[in-house]
Amino acid sequence: MKNCLNMFPLKNQLFFLFFCSVYSVVNAQLVNIESKRMQKDSVRFALKSDVLFDYTDNNGDYILEVGANLTTQLKSKDLKKILFFIGNYDLIRSKQQDFQNSWFFHLRYNQKLSNLFRLEAFIQNQNNTLLTITSRNLIGAGIRLKVISTEATKMYLGNSYMYEIEKNYLTDQQFFNHRNSSYLSLSYTFKKTKLDLTGTVYFQPLYDNIGNHRILNQIKAELPLSKIVSLSALYNYFYSSFSVSTDIDRSSKLSIGLTFSI
């Protein structure tokens, strides 16, 4: 895609990058943690990471793009305790302005009590300087149920309480919300090709106003090309019944790329 971008004038490149950033920032309000989990029952340590750096200069006008993603998971010796971390940073900058400047950190603890029942607790910090809601911080805890567990199929149900603090860039206001988060996740692995499909639906309403809610529907496909590299595709559909700037937000996004894991 970088080579394709270089075929166009800088102004066209900036417009394209601006469109991509606007197309994706709505999704930044709700992140699908389920798609980031590493379903490796007997592996104590796992890590996935990628780094992107791209710099283009045309007659003194430049575009700088930096992207870094890290997902890692650590299990206890008895495999019943899991510490899970996600971090990413994205920057798209030109001489005139930033088109993307965001970061996201999520730390989650999972305690297995039985084959069915698990407890979870998590904290999260999320910032995007180009959004109306520039900052979102939350802490939460809840349950996770492993309803189906076979070699090919896994299904999880989860429910959590979240306390979130959001900051409005335009008015410099802060919002303190008590929000519920429920999800259903179903994954299937094809035996011959090792193709892994995961579908997840999130529903997050306020406790005192169920009409103020967010919905995320996601489908993820991952096809191993080797022990380290996989071809991945991700489709997101996001809906919010309330936004600071508009009454309703809807967004969809399709991403295709490579995943590296150890």
Question: Short summary of the structure?
Answer:
The protein is mostly beta strands and 262 residues long. Helices cover 8% and strands 63% of the residues.
List the helices and strands and how they pair.
Layout (H helix, E strand, L loop, with lengths): L1 H5 L3 H16 L19 E14 L2 E15 L5 E14 L3 E15 L4 E12 L4 E17 L3 E16 L5 E16 L6 E10 L7 E12 L4 E12 L8 E12 L2
Antiparallel strand pairs: 1-2, 2-3, 3-4, 4-5, 5-6, 6-7, 7-8, 8-9, 9-10, 10-11, 11-12
Key words describing this protein structure:
262 residues, mainly beta, Porin, twelve-stranded antiparallel sheet, 2 helices, 8% helix, globular, disordered N terminus
Could you estimate the helical fraction of the residues in percent?
A: under 10%
Count of individual domains: 1
Number of strands: 12
- Counting DSSP H or I runs of 4 or more residues, the number of helices is 2
The CATH topology label is Porin
Q: Judging by the overall fold, what is the CATH architecture?
A: Beta Barrel
> Biggest sheet: strands, sense, closure?
12 strands, antiparallel
C-alpha geometry: globular
What structural category arises from helix and sheet content?
mainly beta
Note the gap between the termini: 26 Å
Q: Which parts are unreliable, with pLDDT below 50 for 5 consecutive residues or more?
A: 1-30
CATH class: Mainly Beta
**What's the alpha carbon Rg, rounded to whole Å?**
19 Å
